[in-house]
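Task: complex structure prediction.
Instruction: return structure tokens for all chains below.
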Amino acid sequence: MDPDAVAKAFVDHYYSMFDSNRAGLASLYEDGSMLTFEGQKIQGSQNIVAKLTSLPFQQCQHSITTVDCQPSGPAGGMLVFVSGNLQLAGEQHALKFSQVMFHLMPTPTGSFYVFNDIFRLNYA
Amino acid sequence: MDPDAVAKAFVDHYYSMFDSNRAGLASLYEDGSMLTFEGQKIQGSQNIVAKLTSLPFQQCQHSITTVDCQPSGPAGGMLVFVSGNLQLAGEQHALKFSQVMFHLMPTPTGSFYVFNDIFRLNYA
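Output:
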């Protein structure tokens, strides 16, 4: 399958789950996964989802602007770079989030999980 | 050595070379390296540097705002996420470039080269 299409499908699935059932993101990380959120390093699916569900907003809607994808090496991973906007419920203006990097690794069943995740809000 | 310090040193070295001797960046890529530049995919050190040296500006100065780093897996690689500003000679305002992701891989001599490189200008 086309890696760009796989990356795009993963990103769509990830943000659809983020916007509708944030706790469900636990299924997309594993114990060795890492998130760097605005410089804060967090390891493991449980801790990562605890962070994401504790963000100070409930309802949100992501819209994706760009998805770039490259194979990361012989282990079958993919690097995915995402930019887009984040609309918070009750806020007039969308935030540009622009800076999310995922390193996806294959699972034994042929799907992918997030091994590395780096998030920076775009303050421009 | 502290991975964050290694990543910071690499990024400082990379942009110092970009701003003073862009063709010299060839030494920081290898034949298997990939660059995605604003969605355009380019492979190999020679082609990558041809792209970087053909950008429509001569003198420039990068200033780095954030550097995030994570180990990318058992092969000893590092993912480095960089945000910052790009000042072009003769332009009044700096551009936010904000979106550079490097995947660094170790060399046999103990240094690193860029295996993956994804660049997006920040249009915010």
